[in-house]
């Protein structure tokens, strides 16, 4: 097994948040190399300020979120993805985490473009890079979907909702004091996406599913024709049995499972994730993988 095969095997063992961090790292590294070799090409990936430059560079509305200024910038965002991912992936699927991340990145770019285009004197900054808007979407989702859950910070357990309040207050202060105004506004836009998504999800409305299907479509474009042909052949070779009774039993089992999941989610909403028993946490984890 060569180095590439070993890397692919290791990458396959990561959960979605780990895979996202890995991709961010290598694209960030590529960006650093590109900027030192040919900066005009690198600037095509950076989000410019103002309406016209951003409209002429629409791909940068997403690509900016995969670049970072330095190693500490990357580490901060990677840590945020890792922590938020622990909560999100315990219940939801990886495609939902990625959808939320990309929505946060897109919200951040739109807010930056609007702010620098409408109020260039107040929202200063020539360009923007960083995954922070997507990371804030994940963090605020976790903080408001599991508000009573706790995270141990050094020697103290702090409820997630208080982390959200701190990030909200600090970024509002930075906007008011005109410190990284464009970037802070993008953080707040991502936070708004995470907050709204958490509220809707707690109401039982999965607003991420539509975006996840878009992602599934683009992913399917990279699947080889041979794989599709094999799948079709396998589908044709399936033996069909009289399965009305079996199908009804399966549907009944799924309905029972959903009722149990809903009751656990209600318990999280009222008392926090930490109020769950180990059996309930394991059940949710398994349900999220199915």
SSE arrangement:
Blueprint: H1 3-13, H2 16-37, H3 39-43, E1 47-48, H4 51-55, H5 60-63, H6 71-88, H7 94-118, E2 127-128, H8 132-145, E3 150-153, E4 156-159, H9 160-176, H10 181-202, H11 209-220, H12 225-236, H13 244-271, H14 278-289
Antiparallel strand pairs: 1-2, 3-4
Helix pairs in contact: 2-6, 6-8, 7-8, 7-10, 7-11, 8-9, 8-10, 9-10
What does this structure look like?
This protein has 290 residues and is mostly helical. The chain is built from 14 helices and 4 strands. It has a two-stranded antiparallel ribbon. It has a two-stranded antiparallel ribbon with strand order 3-4. The protein is globular and about 55 Å long.
Give a nutshell description of this structure.
This protein has 290 residues and is mostly helical.
Q: Rg, please? A: 22 Å
Uncertain runs are 228-243
Q: CATH homologous superfamily of the largest domain, by name? A: Rhomboid-like
Q: How would you write the strand order of the largest sheet?
A: 1-2
What would the keywords be for this entry?
two-stranded antiparallel sheet; mainly alpha; 290 residues; Rhomboid-like fold; 4% strand
